[in-house]
Amino acid sequence: MANPAAGYHYGNAPPPQSYGGYQRPSAPYGAPPYGMLAPSTFAPGTDPTVIACFQVADQDGSGMIDDIELQRALSSYNQSFQLRTVHLLMYTFTGINTRKIGPKEFTGLFYCLQSWRGIFDRFDRDRSGKIDALELREALLSIGYAVSPMVLEILVTKYDKTGGSMRAIEYDNFIECCLTVKGLTERFKERDRALTGSATFSYEAFMLTVLPFLIA
Amino acid sequence: MANPAAGYHYGNAPPPQSYGGYQRPSAPYGAPPYGMLAPSTFAPGTDPTVIACFQVADQDGSGMIDDIELQRALSSYNQSFQLRTVHLLMYTFTGINTRKIGPKEFTGLFYCLQSWRGIFDRFDRDRSGKIDALELREALLSIGYAVSPMVLEILVTKYDKTGGSMRAIEYDNFIECCLTVKGLTERFKERDRALTGSATFSYEAFMLTVLPFLIA
């Protein structure tokens, strides 16, 4: 175990606040996991680019963006996103299984993806649209998550969809991988407030914690 | 909590041994999660039907069945299986991330799928190829797993791929759902030997427990 005085470290390199510094809203286990989001507005001083992107994405002008609208908006930035990745994004930025997000959640999601795109591009030096296993490890470290060789091996095996002999991760799978590692780690840390590196779950809490990340 | 003297119950109706009574081989966390299976043979007295099915599936006569061969064999029984479901099946019956299984693992898998097919058909009364949420709950209970309304809600939302307004689960998604609930519950129980209903994980053990069930 790491030095107990210092507390358990989930990442060796705590990232600057700008790296995916969004905090998932807490969703108590007693609350229904599915439901409607409270209406929100853009915070004063929000970058006009974010507001403009929201308005373009909100094609029906409802003030909310649904999964199809978000998929279309994200894909228009030269990134292909599967609907399951979009659902995982929405879950990450709302803490509930919803198919609509508002201005507040969109803002968090916008900055997070912008930051992760930058990290991906930094490691994708040859602009192939893919990064390899070691680069994935470094990229996860950049967003604050240190994964062991065994965890890395599982992630690469799961997210390598290139079909080639050289294992590589494409951008949308990189985003899914980041969302999964971030989400599971944050959920774990919520149960390890003393940073001991261990957490206790009831069976119900365990299932409700992990199932939202498994399948989409 | 349930009566402590009786121990925590993960299922209200412990199924007869024939209902998916297969026990996952233990995979200690120190062992590599990927690797080769030890060679195996059919146990004396194995049903000749199982051996014949294995030999038909083993198209290259290698004595092992790979993921493509297994997918083809399963699909030939009038069931469509995605490769991701096949990989989850292989993981369930080996405890490691492998792309090949031998006679021993095939036998376990054969009987388990035969049993689950029977359960699915029992609830799919109108032979639509789909079951609804309440039937899914009953079916999971039949194989020994009692899920709460909130867990059921997540499962149905995740595994309903029918796209209709009536939520329903098709056969291959039912198998994925059973494999996920069975696998996660068994892994949890391995850490709750006293049947208290709670289990403690290190961060590494938590990630290594959960990530193999990611459907990617």
Give a structural overview.
The structure is a homodimer. Chain A has a single domain (about 50-215), classed as Recoverin, domain 1, CATH 1.10.238.10. In chain A, about 50% of the residues lie in helices and about 5% in strands. Chain A has helices at about 50-55, 65-75, 85-95, 105-125, 135-140, 150-160, 170-190, 205-215; strands at about 65, 100, 130, 170, 200. In chain A, the strands form two sheets. In chain A, strands 1-2 form a two-stranded antiparallel ribbon. A two-stranded antiparallel sheet of chain A has the order 3-4. Chain A starts with about 45 loop residues before the first helix and ends with a helix. The interface of A and B includes residues 32, 33, 155, 173 and 208 of A. β5 (about 200) of chain A pairs antiparallel with β5 of chain B. Chains A, B: One of its GO terms (molecular function) is calcium ion binding. Chains A, B: Keywords: Calcium.
Alpha carbon gyration radius of chain A: 18 Å
Silhouette of chain A: globular
| Assembly classification | homodimer
Please, what is the average pLDDT of chain A? Answer: 83
Distance between the termini of chain A: 34 Å
Largest contact between protein chains? A-B, 43 and 41 residues
- Fraction in helix of chain A: 40-55%
**How does CATH name the architecture of chain A?**
Orthogonal Bundle
CATH class of chain A: Mainly Alpha
CATH topology of chain A: Recoverin, domain 1
Total of DSSP H or I helical runs spanning 4+ residues of chain A: 8
Proportion in β-strands of chain A: 5-15%
CATH level-four homologous superfamily name of chain A: EF-hand
The main sheet of chain A orders its strands as 1-2
